[in-house]
Amino acid sequence: MKIKNIATFTLAFGVALSALQFSAPAQADPFTNAEDAVKYRQSALSLVRANFAHMSGMVRGEIEYDAEAFQERANALKHLSHIPFDAFSGAGYNVTENSDALPAIWENWDDFSEKAEAFKSAAYELATAAESENMRTIRPRFMATARTCQQCHEGYRAD
Q: Cys-Cys with 7: which of 13, 34, 42, 72 at CB 3.0–4.6 Å?
């Protein structure tokens, strides 16, 4: 099943990214240069977008709802939700070159951090709701998660 393979790959890739980050020698910044930090966060956010887009298709009825596939995507999103944010500090601090990140991220760090935490929390709630296999339970959690994405994009991402 193609969807299952994509979700498995996404989850494995996210876990591998996390493992790479934590397998480096202990230091305050896991990245040695800005370019690596930007690539890391862009890769992680690309995986977030891919999983979210597939779930969005199911929520909107554009793709037939498959409870198992939705759960896999929601679980992947839950795990991926933690990955990109370390790359906005250290070597990734205030780096906007070759990136959609706006300087407002670092000018309003506390607000950005709160929005990142809201996204992580919403992703966990979505994964929990997906266990119900009931779109009436899932849809509100999906929409809440989508709002956390939009709230961050509105002030912190160049479109």
A: 72
